[in-house]
From TrEMBL:
Heterotetramer of 2 MoaD subunits and 2 MoaE subunits. Also stable as homodimer. The enzyme changes between these two forms during catalysis. CDD domains: MoaE. Residues 155-192 are annotated as: Disordered. Pathway: Cofactor biosynthesis; molybdopterin biosynthesis. Its EC number is 2.8.1.12. One of its GO terms (biological process) is Mo-molybdopterin cofactor biosynthetic process. The lineage of its organism: Bacteria, Pseudomonadati, Pseudomonadota, Alphaproteobacteria, Hyphomicrobiales. Keywords: Molybdenum cofactor biosynthesis. It comes from the Bacteria. It comes from Methylocystis bryophila. InterPro entries: MoaE_sf (IPR036563), Mopterin_biosynth_MoaE (IPR003448). It holds the Pfam family MoaE. This is Molybdopterin synthase catalytic subunit. It catalyses: 2 [molybdopterin-synthase sulfur-carrier protein]-C-terminal-Gly-aminoethanethioate + cyclic pyranopterin phosphate + H2O = molybdopterin + 2 [molybdopterin-synthase sulfur-carrier protein]-C-terminal Gly-Gly + 2 H(+). Belongs to the MoaE family.
Length: 192
């Protein structure tokens, strides 16, 4: 039997080569932590209906890892995570290739979902990556700016500092009646 490690396992990796999401999940599950939920988000390079041939992603080595590590630390402070992995590719990527992987593990699903969403909202709007589109005709499609929707998604977390906070808008997910125990189809509770 593996002994659980002290503190959450946090992995930040920037890479040019493709990553294996299944292997990354296996590594988290092999830690021996009492994981009840593992949320995985994989972002892919889109083709925009064939208009895009490639996406070129640039970053400042060292700076990008440091910035992402600071956000990961905020996530493990805000939610009781058991593991968090953030992998992001750089270089030239073709449509369909994986760009980013965020894995968040916790005892419960709400914390894992919230942490993964928080990290992705940061990555989409503030992470120090620069993305340039290469169009299907070979021309330069220009640099990609953060969208207003990405900025709004990140802003919603600013006032949600409690480590028990779930994603914004999920306040009613756990009704008071459900907090005392699970309910069966007839509405009867068990003693869990």
């Amino acid at each position: 039997m593996r002994q659980a490690q002290q503190g959450p396992r946090v992995v930040i990796r920037l890479c040019a080569e493709p990553f294996d999401a299944v292997q990354e999940e296996r590594e988290i599950l092999a830690t021996g932590a009492d994981i009840g939920g593992l949320v995985a988000f994989t972002g892919l390079c889109r083709s925009e209906a064939g208009a895009i041939a490639a996406l070129e992603i640039e970053h400042y080595p060292g700076m990008a890892e440091s910035e992402i590590a600071a956000v990961a630390q905020e996530a493990v402070t805000r939610w009781p995570l058991l593991a968090l992995s953030v992998l992001h590719r750089y270089g030239r990527l073709s449509p369909g290739e994986k760009i980013v992987l965020v894995l968040a593990a916790a005892k419960g699903r709400a914390e894992a979902f919230a942490a993964a969403e928080f990290v992705m909202d940061y990555l989409k709007s503030r992470a120090p990556f620069w993305k340039r589109l290469i169009l299907s005709d070979g021309s330069d499609g220009g640099w990609v700016d953060a969208k207003a929707t990405d900025e709004a998604a990140l802003a919603r977390w600013k006032d949600r500092a409690s480590e028990r906070d779930g994603p914004p808008g999920r306040e009613q997910m756990h009704e008071p009646a459900m907090q005392s125990g699970r309910r069966n189809r007839r509405g009867e509770g068990d003693e869990r």
